[in-house]
Amino acid sequence: MSPRLVPAGADAVGRTETPLTITVDGEPLPGVAGQTIAGVLLAAGRRSWRAGPSGAPRGVFCGIGVCFDCLVTVNGARDVRACRRRAADGDAVITQSRADGRAERAEKEER
Ligand code: FES
User: Fold this and answer.
1) What is the Cα–Cα distance from 13 to 91, expressed in whole angstroms?
2) pLDDT per position as a tens digit, 43-76
3) Contact residues for 15 (Cβ-Cβ < 8 A; gap 6+)
4) Which of 31, 67, 69, 96 would be a feasible disulfide site paired with 58, CB 3.0-4.6 Å?
5) Percent helix, strand and coil across the chain, each rounded to 5?
C-alpha cells in the first residue's frame, strides 16, 4: 500500500475523483471515493493510528486484512480493519489503543 495517490485515470480499479470527508478523532480528513480508511490516513501523512499493548505505534503492516494492526472504530463499530474498509463520506473514525483503554472508553461513550 502506498500513501501516494495515483491519478484516477491511471487507477486500475476505476476510481473516480469524487471527494469525501471523514473525521478521525474529530479531525476532518479529505479523501476520494474508492480509498480505504487506511488510504485516507496515509495520504494525510499519518503512519500510525493505534497503539499495541506495549504502547508501540501501529498502522498498516500487511495492507491486505491479515495482521489486524490497522484496527479502528468506524461509526461506533470497533475493530474495523482500516486497510479493508472503504471510506464513506461522513465516516466517524476513532483510533484505538490497547495501551490505555481509549477504545473501551469510546465504546462506552457511544452507549
Ligand atoms: S494492515 Fe494488516 S489487517 Fe490492515
Assistant:
1) 22
2) 999 999 999 888 899 999 999 999 999 999 999 9
3) 6, 8, 32, 33, 34, 35
4) 69
5) 15, 30, 55
Of ligand 1's listed atoms, the one at least distance from the Cα of 83 is 4
Q: How far is the CA of 59 from the centre of ligand 1 (A)?
A: 8
- Residue 40's nearest CA partner among 91, 80, 79, 98 is 91
Rounded to two decimals, the pTM is 0.80
User: What is the pLDDT, as a whole number, of residue 99?
Assistant: 82
The size of the chain, in residues, is 111
Alpha-carbon distance of 31 to 39, in angstroms, equals 8
Is the CB–ligand 1 distance for residue 67 below 6 Å? yes
Burial 41-64 (b: 16+ CB within 10 A, else e): bbbeebeebbbeeeeeebbbeebe
